[in-house]
Structures are given as C-alpha cells and as structure tokens.
Amino acid sequence: MNPTNSTTTTTANPPTVSRALPPDQISPKSVVLRLFKLKDVAKRNWRLLLILTGIGAVIGFIFDITHKQAPIYNSSIMFNLGSGSSSGGLGELSQLAGAFGLGGGAPDANIFSGDNFLIYARSRPVVEKTLMKHDTINGKDTLLVNYYIRHSGIRDKEWEDNDTLRAFYFDRAKLPSEYSRTEQIAMSTIYSRIIKEITVKQPERKSSFMTLSCGMEDEHLTASFLTTHLQTIEEDYQRKQTKKTREMYDLLNTRADSIARILSGTENRLAQYLDQNQQVVVAQARITETKLTRNSSFLTTLYYTALQQADNMRLSLIRETPLFTIIEPVAFPLYKEIKASLGLQAGIAVGLFLSIIIIFLRETYRSIMKEG
C-alpha cells in the first residue's frame, strides 16, 4: 500500500496586486472625480453663489455712486532754460572787482546745475510764492491760494473734519514770516497736496527742454497754477543766478550817487567863491580858486567813470540773466482724466469670496452629517 502523497498546488500566473499611489501624486481618475463633485456642489449651491455675489455687486455699485471721484484735469508746459552768457562781461567784471579791491567779480551762473533745478522748482518756498500771487481767473482778480482752497477739493478731503480750516481763507498775500498759526497749518497741508500734483522733468537727457506738469480737479486752476508757477520759477531763478552782479551794480550806483553829492557841493562852493572874489588878485585867493576848480574837475571825471561802470554792469546783468523760452504753453481744453471706481469690482470679489467660504462650510457640515 502506497502512502498517500500530499499534493502541492502551484499557480503558474499569480494575481496582480494594485499598488496605491504615493500621497504626493494624484491620478487622473481622482481629478475627474473631484471635478464631478465640484459640479454637483455648484448645482446644489448656485442660488447662494449668485445671491451673495449679486449683493456684493449692489453694495459696491452704491459705494461708487456715493463716493464718486472728481475728474482730474492734466496739462503741462514745455520750456527751455537757457543759461546766461557771462563770457562777454568777464573782463569788465574782473576790472570792476579790482577797482573795489575784490578778487574775482564774475558771478557763478551755474548754481542750479543738473538735477538741482528739478528739486528747486518743486521746493516749498517757490510753491508758496506762486500761491501768494494774484491771477485773473474767469474775469476776476483772485489770490491763487484762495482759488486753490475753493476748487482743489482739499476742504472735502484733507480738511473734512476740521471746521476751522473748511471756512479758512487768506485775507491777503503774505510772506511766510507773516503767517499766523492757522495759516501755517493750512499752507503746510496745501503744499503737501500740491507736491503730489506737480512734476518737473526733463523729457530727454540730452535736451535742455524741461516739462512742468500738473493735474488738479479744476481746469482753470490747473492752467493758472502752471502759468503762474513758471513765472515764479523764472523770476526767482533769475534773481538767484544774478545775485552777485546785482549787488555789484547796486554798489556802483551808490558810489555814483555819493560822488554826485560831493561834486554838487564842490561846484556850489566854487560858484560862491567866484561870486565873492571877482576882482581879487591876491595869490592866496587864486590858490583857493585853483583847488576848488581842480577838485571839481576830478570829481566830474570820477562821476562819469562811475556812471560808465554802472552802465557796463547793467549790460552784464542782462547778459547773465537766464532765459526762459516757452516751447509748448498750456492749451485748452485740458486732458480730462476720470479715475475708474473700483467699488463694483471689489464688491463682486468680496461677495464671491464669502459665498465660496459659506458653501465650503455648508458642504463640510453635510458630509459630516452623512458619515454620522
């Protein structure tokens, strides 16, 4: 009897075992399934999504209407800044400086070179001088700073919560040293606003042209401020550039006036002496007459020389004065810029964001309730 043989069953083709994907990988199947789930979520909550987005859009639209921004009127002036020529009068300045015992009389005509002029044109002292000037706007002579207060929008924005400044006006044109405390605060706020509204730039680095640009809420205010500010820059810049020459010119005029007074006194004494001693032949009298005559002739020569020097200095002053040439003036109508309101877009975005959060919380709660 043969022993029973145990048989071992072996499988030729073992079953295939599916391996799970790593947690950092997503299969295409799972992506499709999630998209179908999102589609189902959108079908269940489309009314909520539409309602909340619509409410946000309505709130943003109302905000745009109640906070409508005023249009900005932009314009610019292109001008050329030509430096004064002092080469022709350099010799004369040196001679005149030597006559007064000074070492070089030629003024520095390039004080504001390079980018210094761009900073200077927007500086507070120059802007304040512009605001304290009168201009004819709509047929009325108006102090520019008061017109700015009325039409720039500063009372409804920066001064909205200050009743004192909302009713404030300058009673007349003043120097900064004459400002009261309220006027100092008002001017400081005005300058802080204007410095954001004006720009001075050089269109081309190789060109001497400059562009003064401005954008304000009133068309006449923009045009008037640009024109007046350029005039102020020109006057103040020329005065600073020719300061040394003007001081020497004033000195020469003072010297000529002093010589003229001395000459007049000498001539009067000579005339009186001649009237009183017409028949006198004494030598002492003749010597006195000769001294008075010599002094009169010498003073006359000095006087005419001083007048000639003053005239030459005046011509040098004209040659050294920087020349402002307007290339493109302000042209009406000005460019009207209407800033787009973002309330409607922001309302839609906020409403959509809130609706997504609410739908997420709602679906999460629903999923938990199903599992429970």
TrEMBL record:
UniProt keyword terms in alphabetical order: Membrane, Transmembrane, Transmembrane helix
Protein name: Lipopolysaccharide biosynthesis protein
Superkingdom of source: Bacteria
InterPro entries the record matches: Bact_polysacc_biosynth/exp
Residue spans of biased composition, Low complexity class: 1-16
Chain intervals for the UniProt region annotation (Disordered): 1-23
Ranges annotated as spanning the membrane: 46-63, 342-361
